[in-house]
């Protein structure tokens, strides 16, 4: 038989559960490089870039330890943002790798160029660090040559348990020769720890 005490506490417990559920929603952050200092053009001054937003850290490198830059492409990159990842110090087939400090569930990123040649774009998501483990998803696209007019595409994908991505765009002659910007990442709570609401339910005997 349900006790009078439990009947009185039931609405309170339901409210706590609703509050705890709302606190576990996924979050989305955008790494847009606008506050990242630029580097001298074409020097490959960076071999790693570590950025943190809302508790999520993204560590950006290139395969083989190849260098890259942060470049301000305004005003040409209209609609893209000012500062972007710039691979042009080395346009070889060495993709960008992004490792995340916790598993994420959704990725999107803009890839753009000034259109002197057609570029093939590729985004891949992996279960392990550094583009290893299970391939969880792939997104691709094409930037068609349109003279020297800037254009870009957004590649996106969703999957559970993404810990790193590999992204590259360019032509057959210059495999990594586009700009990268607006890396948007969706992720959930960092760890499954007992929530305050659950602890209170245990205390009331309703859990």
3D structure, described in words:
A hairpin with a 2-residue loop joins β2 (49-53) and β3. The protein has a single domain (25-191), classed as Jelly Rolls (Sandwich), CATH 2.60.120. The chain has helices spanning 4-22, 196-204; strands at residues 27-31, 49-53, 56-62, 69-72, 83-86, 96-113, 119-126, 135-143, 151-170, 179-187. It is globular, with a radius of gyration of 22 Å. The chain is built from two helices and ten strands; from the N terminus they run αββββββββββα. The strands form two sheets. Strands 1, 2, 3, 6, 7, 8, 9 and 10 form an eight-stranded antiparallel sheet that branches. A two-stranded antiparallel ribbon has the order 4-5. With 207 residues, the protein is mostly beta strands.
């Amino acid at each position: 038989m349900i006790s009078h005490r439990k009947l009185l506490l039931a609405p309170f417990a339901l409210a706590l559960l609703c509050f705890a559920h709302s606190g576990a929603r996924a979050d989305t952050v955008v790494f847009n490089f606008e506050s990242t200092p630029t580097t001298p053009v074409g020097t490959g001054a960076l071999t790693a870039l570590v950025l943190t937003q809302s508790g999520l850290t993204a560590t950006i490198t290139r395969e083989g330890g190849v260098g890259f830059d942060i470049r301000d492409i305004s005003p040409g990159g209209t609609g893209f943002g000012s500062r972007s990842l710039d691979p042009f110090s080395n346009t070889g087939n060495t993709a960008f790798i992004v490792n995340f400090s916790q598993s994420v569930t959704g990725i999107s990123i803009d890839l753009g160029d000034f259109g002197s040649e057609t570029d093939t774009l590729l985004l891949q998501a992996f279960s392990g660090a550094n583009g290893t483990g299970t391939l969880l998803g792939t997104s691709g696209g094409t930037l068609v040559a349109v003279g020297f007019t800037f254009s870009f595409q957004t590649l996106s994908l969703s999957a559970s348990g993404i810990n790193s991505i590999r992204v590259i765009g360019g032509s057959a002659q210059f495999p990594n020769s586009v700009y990268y910007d607006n890396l948007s990442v969706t992720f959930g709570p960092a760890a499954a720890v007992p929530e305050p609401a659950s602890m209170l339910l245990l205390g009331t005997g309703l859990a």
